[in-house]
């Protein structure tokens, strides 16, 4: 009798057979699965239902995908892949911290500041408290959708966040803390509002905007700076990093040697300098006479101070002081200042005039300069060096955004000034074909030959 009882299969209240490791607790009404993980540690899983088709008992809460059998399958998959359940129990926020701490020594301060911003955001985000071994790809995409739709996060912000989460989960997968990388999905620009481009201003809009800034009672104070941005193509942090010694009036060039940046360091603002962002960033930018005049105006108007604050680089091996641009409190201006100057000036313009101007940012000024240079036929390689582009591809992309009028105007300008006068129709032939005394037959065309129009 005892032997027969030991062979009797265990069943749940519905009469279903329970597998090895599965039990049903009549007192609580819960199912339990007991197993050994890949590290040899005893683990317990609990659920109100045995299968995904079972109804959840009244008054109890349980998410989809959390029946006991579904949890068992996940546990078995993790064990088969030798997943370390201890590592898998860390939260998304903790994983981000661990990844960032590994990368911090190898990146620039600007990137570190971006890491800090994303960590601060994730620390207060409910998703950041999820266990990494409980996050799946569907949940990750749904979370990104909610950040965009419900919290107004931009494509750029989401792209930066994913730029940390995807390699962090790749690290977790490599260490066998998780089975898959839930952030290894394609992030479509159209889905998250990333299709908007910061196009160059047309020549007409650039002139209208500069006229307005020049004559406005408030914004005229920034005219020389805005004029320089539109006519040099400097990156805004390079522009803010200029000192009088960088403006070489004798050789008519701007020596671009550094960026001036500012980050939050707890409750205070920390200034520091960095070399330009690309290998081609350290360069000399030619100055037109009007640009030189604008710089002279800036230097003449800049208040003279007995002590100029010194700003160091991260390694404390280089420093600079006397930057050209000062705010109303006498502190050095950085990118955010000029973004605001341009944004507020454009907003005022559009409140006054019916024919509005598109968004104007420091990058739009840079792109406008680049497009204007391309429109007059500047050699792409020359333009690449002036702009400090890392690759010629960045420069060539500008040529695809030229206005139709620019292309047509440039074409006829080059043709009409004899630059393309290789064979005028009124040319007197120097080579005269002899009279062979008959018509030459060309023969039948070879219809199988490839057309000679492939490029």
Overview of the structural elements:
The protein has a 3-stranded antiparallel beta sheet with strand order 1-2-3, with helices on one face. It is mainly α and 455 residues long. β4 and β5 form a beta hairpin. It contains 16 helices and 10 strands. The chain is 41% helix and 10% strand.
Tally of helical runs = 16
Instruction: Please give the alpha-carbon distance between the first and last residues.
Output: 88 Å
Largest sheet: 3 strands, antiparallel
Helix content: 40-55%
* Radius of gyration, taken over Cα atoms and rounded to an integer in Å: 34 Å
- Provide the β-strand percentage band: 5-15%
- Unreliable sequence segments: 1-8
Number of strands: 10
Structural class: mainly alpha
User: Mean pLDDT, rounded to whole units?
Assistant: 83
Overall outline: elongated
- Biggest sheet, strands in spatial order? 1-2-3
Order of helices and strands: HEEEHHHHHHHHHEEEEEHEEHHHHH
Q: Which terms would index this structure?
A:
16 helices, three-stranded antiparallel beta sheet, 455 residues, mainly alpha, 41% helix
Question: Would you spell out the secondary-structure blueprint of this structure?
Answer:
Blueprint: H1 2-7, E1 22-25, E2 30-36, E3 42-47, H2 68-80, H3 85-88, H4 92-103, H5 109-123, H6 137-149, H7 155-174, H8 203-215, H9 223-232, H10 236-240, E4 247-248, E5 253-256, E6 259-265, E7 268-274, E8 283-286, H11 289-301, E9 311-312, E10 319-320, H12 335-352, H13 362-375, H14 380-387, H15 392-399, H16 404-416
Antiparallel strand pairs: 1-2, 2-3, 4-5, 5-8, 6-7, 9-10
Helix pairs in contact: 4-5, 4-7, 8-9, 9-11, 9-13, 14-15
């Amino acid at each position: 009798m005892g032997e027969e009882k030991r062979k009797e299969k265990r069943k749940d209240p519905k009469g279903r057979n329970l597998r090895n490791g599965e039990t049903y607790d009549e007192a609580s009404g819960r199912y339990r699965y007991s197993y050994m993980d890949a590290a040899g540690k005893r683990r317990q899983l609990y659920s109100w239902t045995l299968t995904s088709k079972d109804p959840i008992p009244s008054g109890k809460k349980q998410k989809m995908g959390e029946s006991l059998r579904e949890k068992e399958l996940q546990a078995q998959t993790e064990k088969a892949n030798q997943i370390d359940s201890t590592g898998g129990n860390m939260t998304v926020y903790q994983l981000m911290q661990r990844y960032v701490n590994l990368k911090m020594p190898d990146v620039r301060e600007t990137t570190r500041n971006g890491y800090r911003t994303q960590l601060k955001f994730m620390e207060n985000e409910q998703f950041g408290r999820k266990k990494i071994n409980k996050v799946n790809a569907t949940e990750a995409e749904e979370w990104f959708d909610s950040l965009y739709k419900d919290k107004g996060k931009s494509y750029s912000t989401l792209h930066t966040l994913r730029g940390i989460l995807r390699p962090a989960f790749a690290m977790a997968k490599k260490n066998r803390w998780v089975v898959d990388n839930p952030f290894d999905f394609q992030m479509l620009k159209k889905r998250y509002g990333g299709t908007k481009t910061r196009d160059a201003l047309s020549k007409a809009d650039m002139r209208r905007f500069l006229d307005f800034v020049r004559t406005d009672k408030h914004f005229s104070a920034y005219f020389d700076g805005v004029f320089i941005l539109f006519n040099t193509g400097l990156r805004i942090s390079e522009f803010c990093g200029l000192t009088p010694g960088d403006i070489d009036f004798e050789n008519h060039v701007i020596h671009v040697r550094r960026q001036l940046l500012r980050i939050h360091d707890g409750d205070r603002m920390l200034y520091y300098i960095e070399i330009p962002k690309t290998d081609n960033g350290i360069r000399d930018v030619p100055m037109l006479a009007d640009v030189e005049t604008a710089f002279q105006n800036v230097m003449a108007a800049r208040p003279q101070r007995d002590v100029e604050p010194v700003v160091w680089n991260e390694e404390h091996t280089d420093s600079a002081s006397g930057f050209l641009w000062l705010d109303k409190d006498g502190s050095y201006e950085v990118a955010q200042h000029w973004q605001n100057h341009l944004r507020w000036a454009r907003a005022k313009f559009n409140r006054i005039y019916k024919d509005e101007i598109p968004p104007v940012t420091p990058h739009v000024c840079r792109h406008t300069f680049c497009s204007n240079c391309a429109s007059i036929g500047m050699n792409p390689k020359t333009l690449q060096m002036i702009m400090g582009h890392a690759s010629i591809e960045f420069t060539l992309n500008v040529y695809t955004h030229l206005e139709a009028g620019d292309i047509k105007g440039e074409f006829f300008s080059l043709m009409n000034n004899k630059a393309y006068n290789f064979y005028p129709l009124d040319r007197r032939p120097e080579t005269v074909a002899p009279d062979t005394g008959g018509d030459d037959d060309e023969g039948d065309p070879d219809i199988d030959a490839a057309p000679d129009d492939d490029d």
